[in-house]
Specification:
The chain has about 240 residues and is an alpha/beta fold. About 25% of the residues lie in helices and about 20% in strands. The strands form three sheets. A six-stranded mixed sheet has the order 6-7-8-9-11-10, covered by helices on one side. It has a three-stranded parallel sheet with strand order 3-4-5, with no helix packed on it. It has a two-stranded antiparallel ribbon with strand order 1-2.
Length: about 240
């Protein structure tokens, strides 16, 4: 059946969805067999705006883990305010605090544009402090997940190598899982899709995404309010923006 945008938003919060060519089938009781994950972004460790990043992200993580066991938390870029080693240390202080999230909780990170604002070896800082690849292909409970980092402080910068990685992995996922959604995570939303993407989106991944109606891409960057139904866009694929932490 085809869900309305309001019904789709509600379904996202309760699990049990399968996407096939833009249609969603809900199977009652299927939640235990499906991956459960949370998405957040724009944590901006090092920023002292408002309560400050440490206080805000700690509170957000506590709220997330109270929802029950998660297979993964995806943090889709702008982890830090300028990518310095000291700001990554602040991030790790929160994400490694077992009073906030369980030690066993899987957390997947990727780089946004703010990670490059400090010229102090952005790739080296990320690799040393986070210790994860820039791009990843993961399988969780029989579902494919693809993550993509940016390549510079330009929020539209997906290098040729990054785009090739993405094209190869999404095609492999579509071949292996033709009747399942392909979950994709990257900092910048595809241009002219969800709310905020007209001004803050990137066009680099659109040609590839348009070939895969089962693709669901999660992004941040826009800092727009998630209560707006335009944060979910459904066209040739599905684009969802998490606003920010």
């Amino acid at each position: 059946m085809k869900l309305t945008k309001r019904e789709f938003l509600k379904t996202l919060t309760i699990g049990g969805i399968a996407l096939v060519g833009g249609s969603f089938n809900y199977v009652k009781g299927a939640e235990n067999n499906l991956p459960r994950f949370a998405v957040m972004s724009d944590t901006h460790f090092g920023s002292n705006t408002g309560y400050g990043s440490v206080a805000k992200v700690s509170r957000a993580l506590r709220n997330i883990v109270q929802k029950g066991n998660l297979d993964a938390i995806f943090v889709v870029g702008d982890l830090t305010d300028n990518g310095s080693a000291a700001q990554y240390d602040l991030l790790l202080k929160v994400f490694k605090d077992t009073s906030i999230i369980p030690e066993s909780q899987r957390v997947v990170f990727m780089m946004g544009n703010h990670e490059f604002y400090n010229k102090e070896k952005p790739f080296e800082n990320y690799a040393k402090k986070i210790g994860q690849p820039l791009h990843q292909y993961l399988e969780i409970k029989g579902y494919p997940f693809i993550t993509l980092s940016l390549n510079s402080g330009n929020a539209s910068d997906y290098s040729k190598e990054s785009q090739q990685f993405f094209a190869e992995k999404i095609e492999a996922a579509a071949q292996k899982y033709p009747d399942k959604p392909i979950f994709i995570f990257s900092h910048t939303p595809p241009q002219n899709t969800c709310y905020g993407s007209k001004s803050w989106g990137a066009s680099a991944l659109l040609e590839t995404l348009n070939k895969y109606p089962q693709a669901i891409i999660f992004s941040g960057h826009t800092h727009t309010p998630i209560g707006d139904s335009r944060m979910v866009w459904q066209g040739n694929f599905t684009s969802i923006n998490d606003g920010s932490t």
